[in-house]
Automatic annotation (TrEMBL):
Residues 4-178 form the DJ-1/PfpI domain. This is Putative Intracellular protease 1. It comes from Streptomyces aurantiacus JA 4570. GO terms for molecular function: peptidase activity. The lineage of its organism: Bacteria, Bacillati, Actinomycetota, Actinomycetes, Kitasatosporales. GO terms for biological process: proteolysis. It comes from the Bacteria. SUPFAM superfamilies: Class I glutamine amidotransferase-like. PROSITE patterns: PEPTIDASE_C56_PFPI (PS51276).
Length: 188
């Protein structure tokens, strides 16, 4: 049986930040599940940059079914966690079931990959204090407020935590995450 990896997300997650790791990790032989507040079809979004805008724009993206609700997740069955960005982390960080899941992965020192606004979730449970991370650059102040040292880099590895700024950094992010996974939770 293949090792399982959990992706936690919700509506308004960045399409590429969910589907790229989902497919890349499956390609490596991992069994990947997507969890959300409820089992339902999720509506992802596409963030892009348009001339004349000071920040990114948002358009409807792909839809994808959640495999299970946060309340159904047994973190002990998963070897690693992926936290995509987009706007989902903004409202998910207060979800008590998700907070328990996140805490379980950090308490067990399991590999965690976070990208873009995903670190808002790990900040919400106090798991960034004393760590080096990157995130969407506009979150630098949030990362510092959470006690982390922010680095504006394609991918930052701090122990079993691998972070990236946004979807243009996917290849570096997944390359570093797979290095951690192969050492800590190889495909069986």
């Amino acid at each position: 049986m293949a090792a399982k990896i959990l992706i936690v997300t919700g509506d308004a997650a960045e399409s590429l930040e969910v589907l790229y790791p989902f497919q890349r990790l499956r390609e490596e032989g991992y069994d990947v599940h997507i969890a959300a507040p409820a089992r339902k079809k999720l509506q992802f979004v596409v963030h892009d940059f348009e001339p004349g805008f000071d920040t990114y724009t948002e358009k409807p993206g792909y839809t994808w079914p959640a495999d299970l609700a946060f309340s159904e997740v047994d973190p002990g069955q998963y070897v690693a966690l992926v936290i995509p960005g987009g706007r989902a982390p903004e409202y998910l960080r207060g979800d008590p079931e998700l907070r328990k899941i996140l805490k379980s992965f950090f308490d067990a020192d399991k590999p965690v990959a976070q990208i873009c606004h995903g670190p808002l979730l790990t900040a919400a449970i106090g798991s960034l204090a004393g760590r080096r991370v990157t995130a969407y650059p506009a979150l630098e102040i949030d990362m510092q407020a959470a006690g982390a040292t922010f680095q504006d880099a394609e991918a930052v590895v701090d122990g079993t935590l691998v972070s990236a700024r946004a979807w243009p950094d996917h290849s570096g992010w997944m390359r570093e995450f797979l290095t951690v996974l192969r050492a800590k939770a190889p495909v069986t």
